[in-house]
TrEMBL record:
Family annotation (PANTHER family): HTH-TYPE TRANSCRIPTIONAL REGULATOR, TRANSCRIPTIONAL REGULATORY PROTEIN
Family matches, as InterPro entries: LysR-type_TF_proteobact-type, LysR_HTH_N, LysR_subst-bd, WH-like_DNA-bd_sf, WH_DNA-bd_sf
Keywords: DNA-binding, Transcription, Transcription regulation
Protein name as catalogued: LysR family transcriptional regulator
Example GO molecular function: DNA-binding transcription factor activity
Any single biological process term in GO: DNA-templated transcription
UniProt cross-references to SUPFAM superfamilies, sorted A to Z: Periplasmic binding protein-like II, Winged helix' DNA-binding domain
Transmembrane region(s): none
Protein family membership: Belongs to the LysR transcriptional regulatory family.
Length: 294
């Protein structure tokens, strides 16, 4: 026989107060109703939960064993109710999204546009600073981060995709100079260096390891400048595939570099994960951010 939740609720009240009289007062029912509900639960479960004494109700060993489960069921019901309440609220308000400029101005641009259409009541604020925003401290709500390690208390890190790098040139450059298809051919071509510190750190390390640092003829301190120079046909650059593969003006020169593989994470505070406006944006990004397939 399946127990009635209302009976479980009365069982918990009697266990906590020690009497059906006090439990009845707490639940705003009569003492008789509280006693009847406990008896009904005992019949449904087939066990005696309390020793009825003149001084009050004392849990039996069976009652003690089941008390933890009853409390867990109560907590689960509260979480269910809270979640339903949150889902019932409309997804509206401001969501602050922080990400690298090289992503913001490439594959993420149409995604943000589609998000605006799908969620017109949500106002997206885009933060493309290279500084790592303190999500737990409220500096942003959601971050798209390239990172090798997950740091920050109270944050949820969801892995979206691997993001390897490789060398790209523009179609205009290819028409004038051809496309180097082997690593050994790269030394015969000029490179554009730069990008924000997070981009340049990976890029410069690969250039140094490949003996190509001396081939850098120009340096930009921003990823947007780096992309613009490559698009203009000034030279080659190693770029994250997620960003460059979506650019119709760029051509992959060589296969993805085994030496440079990063990962893209969706990061957000645990305390915000059930906020309707945050949940709506998270679900949209999880569904729409492209996955690297090779």
């Amino acid at each position: 026989m399946t127990p009635d939740w209302d009976d479980v609720r009365h069982f918990l009240a009697v266990a906590e107060t020690g009497s059906t009289l006090a439990a009845g007062r707490a639940l705003r029912v009569s003492q008789t109703t509280a006693a009847r509900r406990v008896a009904a639960l005992e019949e449904a479960l087939g066990v005696i939960l309390f020793d009825r004494r003149q001084a009050g109700y004392l849990l039996t060993p069976a009652g003690e064993a089941l008390l933890t489960h009853a409390r867990s069921a109560q907590d689960a019901l509260r979480r269910l109710t809270d979640e339903a309440s949150l889902l019932g609220r409309s997804a509206e308000g401001v969501v602050r999204l922080t990400l690298s400029p090289i992503f913001a101005f490439t594959f993420m641009m149409p995604i943000i546009g589609d998000l605006r259409i799908a969620q017109p009541s949500i106002h997206i604020e885009i933060d493309t600073t290279e500084d790592v925003r303190d999500l737990a401290g409220g500096e942003a709500d959601i971050a798209l981060r390239v990172s090798k390690e997950r740091r920050g208390a109270g944050l949820v890190w969801r892995l979206l995709t691997a993001d390897p790098w490789t060398v790209y040139c523009s179609r205009a450059y290819a028409e004038r100079h051809g496309v180097p298809r082997h690593m050994s051919e790269l030394v015969n071509h000029p490179f554009i260096g730069g990008g924000e510190p997070g981009v340049w750190a990976h890029y410069q390390a690969w250039l140094a390891a490949s003996g190509l640092e001396e081939k850098v003829i120009m340096h930009h301190n921003s990823s947007t400048g780096l992309l613009a120079a490559v698009r203009a046909g000034t030279g080659l650059a190693a770029l994250p595939c997620l960003a460059a593969d979506t650019d119709p003006d760029l051509i992959r020169c060589v296969p993805p570099l085994k030496e440079v593989i990063t990962h893209l994470w969706l990061v957000y505070p645990e305390r915000l994960r059930h906020e309707p406006r945050i949940r709506a944006v998270l679900d949209f990004l999880i569904a729409r951010v492209p996955r690297f397939t090779g």
